[in-house]
Write a structure and sequence with these properties.
Elements: E1 2-3, E2 16-28, E3 31-47, H1 66-72
Parallel strand pairs: 1-3
Antiparallel strand pairs: 2-3
GO molecular function, one term: DNA binding
Keywords: DNA-binding
GO biological process, one term: mitotic G2/M transition checkpoint
């Protein structure tokens, strides 16, 4: 999911390839969310001509923090 504030959202269409500056990515209710900041910049750099596919849906993947990732990683021999 991507949230865009202000008039920038009026000029974006499906298939646009965008360059974002000053954006934040975070987990919100288990979904990956990309949000522009107040002083962020959005620039259209092209258009995707590939056929759109809804799978894999990246938001439905299991996203974990670095700490959770370390806890789930197999321990090497000789490590506590």
């Amino acid at each position: 999911m991507m949230n865009i504030w202000g008039d920038d959202g009026k000029h974006i269409r499906n298939g646009d390839i965008l360059r974002l500056e000053g954006a934040e990515a975070k987990l919100f209710k288990g979904f990956l969310q990309l949000t522009t900041t107040r002083y962020g910049k959005i620039r259209r750099v092209g258009e995707d001509t590939m056929v759109f596919q809804e799978s894999p849906n990246i938001s439905k993947m299991l996203w974990v923090t670095e700490e959770e990732s370390r806890a789930m990683a197999p321990k090497e021999e000789g490590q506590c």
